Structures are given as C-alpha cells and as structure tokens.
UniProtKB/TrEMBL annotation:
It comes from Gordonia terrae C-6. Residues 19-150, 163-297 form the EamA domain. It comes from the Bacteria. InterPro entries: AA-Vitamin_Transporters, EamA_dom, EmrE-like. The lineage of its organism: Bacteria, Bacillati, Actinomycetota, Actinomycetes, Mycobacteriales. One of its GO terms (cellular component) is membrane. The chain crosses the membrane at residues 12-32, 44-64, 76-101, 113-130, 137-156, 162-181, 193-217, 223-246, 253-272, 278-297. This is Permeases of the drug/metabolite transporter, DMT superfamily protein. Residues 303-312 have a biased composition (Basic and acidic residues).
Amino acid sequence: MRTSLIGIPARWVTFAMSAAFVVCWSSGFIGAKLGAAEAPVLTVLMWRFLVVAAALGGVVYFLWRRRGLAPMSLRWFGSQLVIGGLSQAGYTVTVYWAIALGVSTGTTALIDGVQPLVVAALAGPLLGAVTHRRQWWGLLVGAAGVVLVTWSDAASSAAAPWWAYLIPLLGMAALVAATFLERRVDDSPSPTVVLAIHCGASAVIFTAAGLLAGVAVPPADGTFWLAIAWLTVLSTLGGYGLYWVLLRRSGVTSVNTLMFLMPPVTALWGTAMYGEPFGWATGLGLAMACGATWVVNRPPSSKARDRREAEARTATAAP
C-alpha cells in the first residue's frame, strides 16, 4: 500500500481530501443563497473573487520573494486564464443566477449532478481514458439518484420559472470544458499559482460586469461579508483548490463521480439552514449517490487487475 510523505496510507489521504472537497464544494450553493439575499448576483461574485484574488496574489508574491517561481510560458498562462474563466466565472454565474430566480440550492446542485456521466462519456474520445463496465453501472446508479432527488425537489417548489432549471446545465458544460482543457495543459508550477490565476481572471470578469451594471458598491450589512468570507474560504480555496488537486491525484472519472454526492449533501445543508424540504426521495438519492461513488472509486479486485494486465500485455505483443 502506498504511503504519503507523513506515513499515512495514500488512499486514506485521498479519502480525506475527497470528503473535504464534497463539503467545501457543496458549501458554494449555500453561500450563493446567503449572498444573493443581501445583494445582486454580480455584486456577490465581484467581491468574492476580488477578496480571494487579493489574498492569493499576496501568497504568490511571498512565495516568489522567498524562493522564486518556476517560469511559465505565455501559452500556458493564456490557457489557465481560459480555464479559470470557464470553471469559475462560467460555472458560478449560472449557479447564482438559478438560485436568485428561485431554484432551491438542492435542485441547483442536483442538475449539476449529471456532470459525471458527461465526463465519463467524453473521457475516452478526448483523453483516451477508459471507463470500465463496473464504473458505468455506478455512474448510471448515481445519475438515477440525481434524477430522483431532482424530481422530488422541483415538484415541492414552484417558486422558479421552468426555464430557470436549464441554467445550471450551462454552468455544468463550462466546468466540463475547463476540466478537459486542464488535462491537456502541461503540469503547472504550483497549484497556488494556478488558483491565483483562475481567481484573478474571474475577478477581472466580474469587476468589469459589476461596474458596467452599476452594482459594484457592496452593502454594509454584516451578513454580506459573512457570505463573502464563507465563499472565499470554503467554496473557492477549499472547493476549487481541492478539485484541481484531486483531478491530478485520482483522475477525471473518479473526481467527477464525487459530484453525485453534491446534491444530497447540499440538500442537507439547505434543510438545516433554510428549512428546504428533505423527504424520502432525497434520502434515497443520497444512498444511491454514496453507493455509486463507492462502486466507481473502489480499487479493482486482484483477479480483475490480473486480467487487465494480461489483456494489456497481449495488446502490446500483438503485431
């Protein structure tokens, strides 16, 4: 069993990071509702990314002064700007917009829950990654859980227009595009530098949008700044930071399968904080999502591993 530098088995470290990622990413939907109740969507997004970009910029400057940074090409820098714009600006604006229109936090997360199936379907053609039959079964079970909870959650609330439920799909598409683009970019000099570039790009986009819309001035209410702190620490540094770290550590299919857990976990948060409904369908969907995540990410048996190795040797030896 592989161990990390501190002597803890690598699988345990990955599990702990995955659990933290699920909690942090789910917190973004709750923070979006918390902030949207105090200010326009663009105001919240503008100050969220300005704060985190300034903080990360200070960290990068400290690292540069302390030990220098690896050189980066203009092509690499431009690619990271595009990835940041898609994964953060493109994704978050749709989440906030849908929630502001009345879609519940749980339903917004649930609609995004189809992402693992999209990623698995595209991983082969775009990255040459193989999704095995057992993983496909897990993905289908997880998707069924997402559909079940989405139907239950949407049926219990008629606050949003029907087309608002389509908006999170645009954000999901932006995040999927950013994920595959990142896999085609050379290894980065530092995850901190990458996240700083991503947040800087989003800060520029939302600041320009906020100024043009005339909503750049933040409210003085303390709840607004509580939401900004929540979104900065948990959702951005925790959620996005762990997403890119786990993507390199575990692979596209495994990391995106964790998205199945976002809807039920977000529904739990929404029930606890906002009294959003949590019925039997949500509980069943949570169980299905947990089962799907375990099926997709559990290591193959020794027999299956030996069979795959034999198949690989045969394919290599074939003329």
